Give the backbone structure.
Amino acid sequence: MTPTSSLTTSPYHYKITSPFSSLNPLTKPQLISITHLLRLHYNTKTNTPTKLARFSRPSSNNIIAAAAAAAMATSQASDQTIKMDNLLFVEMGVGYDQHGQNITSAAMRACRDAITSNSIPGFRRGSIPGVSFEQMKLQIKLGVPHSLQQSLDIEKVKSVFPYGKILDVEVVDGGLICSSGVHVEEMGDKNEDCYIVNAAVYVGY
C-alpha cells in the first residue's frame, strides 16, 4: 500500500500526519520546511488551500553588476571627498547655536572648534621640502540639517579661516535640531530650537 500524507489545519495550529510520524516526530523547523515545499497556504476563511507566490532568485550576473555599481559609487564619493594631492591633517569640530536659530553661526563655531586647538607650524617653517606657506590648501565638510542648508552663508563660514586656499566647502546632511529647553525672546529666539553643526577640515597641499 502506498504511504499517504495529509495536511490538517485549524485557526490555532498546523499539523502534518504521515505513516512515519510516530517514528520520526516533526520539529517546528521541519514543519515549516515541509509547508514551504508543499507551496500551500491554508485559507481559514474559505477552508481551501491556496498557492503561495513564487519568488525568483536574482541571477549571479545581477548580483555582480549591483556590487560593481556600489563599488564605483563608493570610489566616486571618495574622489569627491578629498580634492588635494597630499592630505596632512583632518581637524574636526562641533558648533552650536542655542538661541537665535542661526545655522551660519553654528557652522562658524564648528569650524573654529576644529582649528583653534591645533597649531600647524610646518608650512611657515618650511618643514615640508619644496612646499611653501602659500601652497597650503583647505577643504571643509559640514554636516548641516537638511531643512537648514539653504540658509547657510558659505562666505561667512570661509571667513573663519585666517589662511590657506579653500578648495571647497561641502555641505551634507548631518548635524541636529533639538530643543534648548527654553524660549528666550530677548536673545532673538523664535522658538526653542537649538542648531548643531559638525565640521571636518582637511589640511594639505
The beta strands are 6-9, 14-17, 40-43, 48-51, 87-97, 137-144, 165-173, 176-179, 193-204. Confidence is low (pLDDT under 50) at residues 2-23, 31-41, 74-79. The helical segments are 28-38, 60-81, 103-115, 122-125, 154-158.
